[in-house]
Amino acid sequence: MNIARRMLKAMLAAVVAAEGIAWFATAPRADGPEELTLPAANALQAQPAKWGGVGGCAAAACHGGEVEQPRGEYTTWISRDPHSRAYSVLFNETSLQMARQLAGGDAARSLPPHEDRRCLACHAPTGPESERSPQLVGDGVGCEACHGGASEWASTHATIDWKSLSPVEKKAKRRSLGMNDTRDLLVRTQQCVRCHVGEGEADVTHDLIAAGHPRLSFEMGTFHDQLPKHWSNESERRADRAFEAKLWALGQITAATAQYELVASRARLGDGIEFANYDCYACHHELRSSSPRPVARPGDTPGQLRPLSWYVPDGKTWGLFTSEDVTRALDTDDGRAAHALANRLPNWATEMSSAKWDRSMIEQILAERAAAPPENSSWDQATQWYLAMVALERARLDHFDAPPTGAAADGDQQVLAQLQAIKDLLNFPGGDAGHVLNSPRDFDPQAFGDAAQRLNAAIQARKASGDGP
Ligand code: HEC
Ligand code: HEC
Ligand code: HEC
Ligand code: HEC
Which of 280, 305, 378 to probe ligand 4 with, by most ligand atoms within 8 A of CB? Predict the structure, then answer.
């Protein structure tokens, strides 16, 4: 890994939190049909195939070999992957406190989190709910949560017959037997989003957040980067040099789709207005356990709701969302408008995943976005813009066979230094006792705007020197 890449990796690690896809002004604006087929409540539990559990994959000759080696997938998962702890965290102090809070402080009435369907939906999915057993639940987020219930393929997917199939035949076979094609980046992203944004009753609502659940702010590039891999990400990136850019784009589209389906199902299932549809910092300036009432940001009209901007792709250039669409989606209480909004996106995602992302396209998108940072932005918008710049810069560097040298390397260093400066502005102040959740209370849109202009200048200078876009 060259130095520039390593620095970018470190930058991703600290800022996790999401808006804005700004490119392709000409994106088709396809108003999907407004049919009212909302997703099955908690489709995670509605997968047809039965699950066998992680134990079935863990034998040394199957996936229980050495960590980070082929056939060591189980070993990597159990020793490094946070998903293997997803069930056990339901016993920790935060979970217990959440349960008490959700029961209105009445410990006697509170349901243990490890028995609460609301929590198990994401922390210990088991396929069909009727199949739920202590052993399956104990796996947490096991192999089948991403790869699909294995009852139809567990015994055959390692046979000589299976291995002798052509890639096209394998794809068809996987699909017919319920094995998710996780190599396909769109399929992969769709799996992550089910739990990391939510789906149907698998939902981190404001009630859960106020009780102590972390806010879910999913961005695919960042989360994918942080997941300890049981496969070779290096060879994926070598095989497809636009990997990082695609992952980011598909993440934006897929997460927005999931968010608006969630808004639709909240309208259908919930009673009343769901605060988690709205910008947190319109109501909260800081999240202190000592402040009894949410405090609005200076300049905000108290009580004026803004849509949560993390999952609103930039309408100006994307052409798919306008702020009126988003407001309408949140204002209609039968969920139809939100569902229609979500419906516009999947075709676009398919198009993105098959597009040829060559270096000049990536550099063009990078330069266009750099020149148009969000104005007077919220922290969410600024952070999404930053994460997009990082993803595109990473994809750009992946297009070089050898790390650039001389003047070209200097240009890259300038760009990296400006990215680092922006990241410093986005970090949450942390560490204060008394904060139940850190919040970006010191975020300054003006300082961000200035830093974004310096980044743009560095990118334009690199371009002018002929070494960059
Ligand atoms: C929509 C899926 C979803 C639901 C529903 C859900 N969670 Fe989570 N939970 C997550 C995800 C994803 C994370 C990781 C958050 C992150 O880092 O973005 C998480 C993180 C947590 C954490 C922090 C874990 C840690 O390592 O510190 C706790 C504790 C937790 N959840 C408990 C609960 C409890 C208790 C419930 C039920 C009342 C619940 N969750 C419901 C998806 C969910
Ligand atoms: C959070 C989602 C997730 C979980 C949980 C998960 N995987 Fe994977 N797995 C992936 C992704 C993504 C890939 C990369 C794409 C691919 O090769 O299919 C992958 C790849 C693999 C591969 C191919 C490795 C290679 O070198 O090509 C195997 C085998 C595998 N996983 C087995 C397992 C086993 C066994 C478990 C449980 C112990 C597991 N996975 C849990 C997402 C997951
Ligand atoms: C079945 C639900 C589910 C699926 C599918 C899923 N996750 Fe998770 N993920 C969780 C839960 C729950 C946690 C919290 C576990 C904990 O803290 O112990 C988590 C934690 C994580 C974390 C650690 C976050 C942190 O703050 O430390 C990363 C990174 C992550 N997931 C990435 C992914 C990616 C990438 C995918 C898709 C390839 C994926 N997840 C698919 C439920 C899921
Ligand atoms: C419409 C205004 C509004 C919005 C938007 C809103 N909240 Fe709240 N929040 C409240 C109110 C009112 C309370 C206190 C009552 C309660 O616990 O529900 C609260 C309580 C909380 C608490 C508990 C605070 C404490 O001191 O115990 C947390 C944490 C929280 N919200 C986080 C969030 C996050 C994160 C978001 C964005 C996803 C958000 N809120 C969006 C109004 C809002």
Answer: 280
